[in-house]
Amino acid sequence: MAHKKGMGSTKNGRDSNAQRRGVKEPAGKLVSGGSIIVRQVGNQFWPGQNAGQGRDFTIYAKVEGKVKFETKATGKKYVHIITEEAAK
User: N or C: which end of the chain has fewer CB within 10 A?
Assistant: First the structure.
């Protein structure tokens, strides 16, 4: 019988990194095309006008404009990108 414990692998140290999800750009902020607006799991927010959704449910801007959040009567929250032409 061994008197010392063998040098096996540890069972600790496997904590994962934070995912950094949430709203990245506030309402009213001017963003460029391709900017990430929301990182999420599932659809808490839905893409609206001039906004797109990636495979991982990330909402991003398709064009340059201002961010607008809207809640419809159904309870769904939409993210729109309002261009300068549309604002006039």
Answer: N
Q: Which residue has the tokens 């506030």?
A: 26
Closest CA to 33 of 68, 65, 79, 78: 65
Beta-bridged to residue 32, according to DSSP, are none
- Give the residue from 33, 53, 55, 34 showing the smallest Cα distance to 45: 53
Spatial contact of 87 and 30, defined as CB atoms under 8 Å apart:
no
pLDDT digits (tens, 9 = 90+) for 31-60: 999 999 999 999 999 999 999 999 999 999
Residue type for 29, please? K
Nearest CA-CA partner of 83 in 27, 32, 25? 32
Q: What CA–CA distances, in Å, run from 18 to 15, 21, 22, 40, 60?
A: 9, 8, 12, 13, 21
State how beta strands 30-31 and 51-53 pair: unpaired
Mean pLDDT for all residues in the chain: 91
> Taking Cα atoms as reference points, which of 67, 43, 64, 65 lies closest to residue 54?
43
